[in-house]
Design a protein that fits this description.
Layout: E1 5-9, H1 15-25, E2 30-33, H2 43-46, E3 56-59, E4 62-65, H3 67-77, H4 90-112, H5 130-142, H6 154-169, H7 176-185, H8 189-211
Parallel strand pairs: 1-2
Antiparallel strand pairs: 1-3, 3-4
């Protein structure tokens, strides 16, 4: 079973990003749902991810954690799916994927927790300020139809997921550029399949919880 691709996730987590990416590749995989109050901190899973967090994937003896890394790994591992960047696309692809994994994720989390970075300390944090990050994100989604250029790549899975969540939960500013970009990426079949699979998994978890 060493060839098997195993996906460790919880449908109420960032695992939804990795699920979308897996569905974009179209490769078969087995899903293991981890519960926040139980199996996610179990010894067997801590051997996969010592952080005790999801998502993670295991593929041919390689373990990958962190959503951006999972997206990039899958794009590179299955090049025939054409989700990895072409040479001229690499700059934008990596620039904006890491921007979303760093400054964007950081400032949204800090703001959600109610912390405000003092203006005189903005130089000390990687994101500077919330407004600065929003303006920069808008540039990322308006320079071209997609993050890396004129075609969809794994970077759109990652950045698109952040924008989708941000608009849905109010952690991003409601800018027309964000909604327009989300409209371009969210109508993909893989996105719809991934959401349906995670919604179904969430319902199953809730049923099991109620039956105990």
């Amino acid at each position: 079973m060493t060839e098997e691709l195993v996906f460790y996730t919880n449908p109420m987590s960032r695992g939804r990003i990795a699920r979308w990416m897996l569905e974009e590749t179209g490769v078969p995989y087995r899903t293991e749902i981890k519960t926040f109050d139980g199996t996610i901190k179990g010894t067997d899973y801590l051997s996969v991810n010592p952080m005790g967090k999801v998502p993670a994937i295991s593929h041919r003896g390689t373990i990958v954690t962190e959503c951006a890394a999972i997206c990039a790994y899958l794009a590179d591992t299955f090049p025939e799916k054409e989700l990895a960047p072409r040479p001229k696309e690499r700059g934008s692809y990596y620039r904006w994927m890491f921007f979303a994994a760093g400054p964007l994720e950081s400032v949204v989390t800090i703001r959600m927790l109610g912390f405000v970075t003092p203006a005189d300390k903005a130089r000390s944090v990687g994101y500077g300020s919330f407004g600065n990050v929003m303006d920069t994100l808008e540039k990322a989604v308006t320079d071209n139809p997609y993050i890396a250029g004129d075609r969809f790549t794994a970077a759109d899975v990652y950045v698109g997921s952040h924008i989708g969540w941000g608009l849905n939960f109010g952690s991003l500013e409601q800018r027309p550029a964000f909604a327009d970009y989300l409209g371009r990426v969210a109508n993909r079949d893989a996105y719809q399949r991934a959401n349906a699979l995670d919604d179904e998994a969430m319902q199953d978890m809730q049923l099991k919880a109620h039956s105990h």
